[in-house]
Amino acid sequence: MLKANIETFLGCEAAYEEADIVLYGAPFDSTTSYRPGARFGSRAIRSESYGLETYSPYQDFDLADCCVFDAGDQELCFGDVSLALKDLEERASEILSDGKLPFLLGGEHLVTLAAVRAAVKKYPDLAIIHFDAHTDLRDDYLGAKLSHACVIRRCWELLGDGRIFQFGIRSGDREEWRWGKEHVTTNPFVIDPEVLSETLRRLEGRPVYFTLDLDVMDPGVFPGTGTPEPGGVSFDDLRKAAVAVCSRANIVGCDVNELAPGLDASGISTAAACKIVREMLLALSKNNI
């Protein structure tokens, strides 16, 4: 029988009613400050996922045994940042209200703000774990309060001090670093397994939103991103850290963002993004069993 050609992330074909996790894409990069193209990231991750196996030898677990629904990319207004964020927040709220875990595929990093707005309404004591090359703590970028360079500052305004934990940070202006020392916990340059483990221990039982900017990886292994920053972590270090967070924390929402597939003709960056998403989905599913 012929069926409609509806592309999903590899193995994520559960019905919405049955799903524990819901993937949804945010093809948005209107505030990108350097090289655009992240709006195509979610589509590329979905399409190129078919170069992987559903089975992970790292975790001895298979996506075929998980209940994940892929809602596809959301249609967003590129000309109005506030309206795009509002639409994304409504989608995240709908998923949360149905008792499911929203997993957002960006897109630029600003889309995280929409998901966090939805999550903190349901979980007022929410904490954030943030992997990134950049602090994203500017109060504004060239006068704009809504920018991917300001996303974690906007999230802080929702959560307050002591509830945001950053890893891998190696770039930001002087004021961001000074401000961050007073308001967030920044672990610079690397994702130290021991520090991460202690953070996860401190957050045990608390609702956690996990945001992963793929430019935390070194551009030598992940060149396909809008603002590459030399000196990042390896793919395998990121994989281990992301799995640790998804396995041990009480994750209530998460995202993977800032893949710009057109900036890496080799496809290596997209392949890395796909594998990170697969490993996160598997760890989240195992954590919920």
Q: Can you write the helix and strand succession as a string?
A: EHEEEHEHEHEHEHEHEH
Q: Helical segment tally?
A: 8
CATH homologous superfamily label: Ureohydrolase domain
The count of strands amounts to 10
Major pleated sheet: 8 strands, parallel
Class per helix and strand makeup: alpha/beta
Mean pLDDT: 96
The largest beta-sheet arranges its strands as 4-1-5-10-9-6-7-8
Supply the CATH class. Answer: Alpha Beta
CATH fold-level label? Arginase, Chain A
Q: Please state the overall shape, judged from the principal axes of the Cα atoms.
A: globular
Rg, Å, rounded: 17 Å
Portion in helices: 25-40%
β-sheet strand percentage: 15-25%
At CATH level 2, the architecture is 3-Layer(aba) Sandwich
Unreliable sequence segments: none
How many individual domains? 1
Describe this structure as you would to a colleague.
The protein has a single domain, classed as Ureohydrolase domain (Arginase, Chain A, 3-Layer(aba) Sandwich). Helix 1 (41-48) crosses helix 8 (268-288) and helix 3 (111-122) runs parallel beside helix 4. It has an 8-stranded parallel β-sheet with strand order 4-1-5-10-9-6-7-8, sandwiched between helices. A two-stranded antiparallel ribbon has the order 2-3. The chain is 35% helix and 18% strand. With 289 residues, the chain is of the alpha/beta class. The protein has 8 helices and 10 strands.
Give the topology.
Elements: E1 21-26, H1 41-48, E2 55-56, E3 61-62, E4 68-73, H2 81-97, E5 101-106, H3 111-122, E6 127-131, H4 151-159, E7 164-169, H5 174-183, E8 185-188, H6 193-202, E9 207-213, H7 235-248, E10 250-257, H8 268-288
